[in-house]
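Input sequence (189 aa), recorded before submission:
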Amino acid sequence: MGSRRLSRRSARAENRQNVEIRIMKSAWRYVLAVVVTVVMAFGVAACGGNPPPEPPPPPPPTEEELFMRMTLDELNATAPLLPVFFNYDESEILPAGQTTLQQNAEWMRRWPSTRVRVEGHCDERGTNEYNLALGDSRAASVRDYLVSLGIDASRITAVSRGEESPFCMEEHEGCWSRNRRGHFVVIVK
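Predicted structure, token format:
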């Protein structure tokens, strides 16, 4: 009888041990299944198809934005306002100059906050005093013509440069004709 009890105890112990092993194996399988599922979920998410599309490029700056970004020096370097040329010893606006001034007036209407300086220039023939007076008359003619086209006189300053700032330094009519001009400088944007 003693051996029967012993064998029942050992059978129960062995049975309990087998149950515990099965439970542990089952638990490990469960843990392993959870770990594999989590790893696969992250793997799929990481590989997850196509990358997000690139955002569209910003629109190009408008003409107004470009204008406002420019310094006065940069703006004047682009020569948005064309010079007006004069005959020798005259300050009358020629037909070609009228066309140029109409284009310049359109530009000034487009940019109503701008102010300009019109500089009257002469070739080197004549005295300094005479050329300063002639340059003054040329600048005033340009200003007055722009005013006749509807540009407010307060936006235009007229000055004479006489013969002091020539376009061309050579001594012949082709060069002198380029120096007889009303030149524009934007002074306020």
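Checked by second reader. Residues 2-47 form the longest helix (46 residues).
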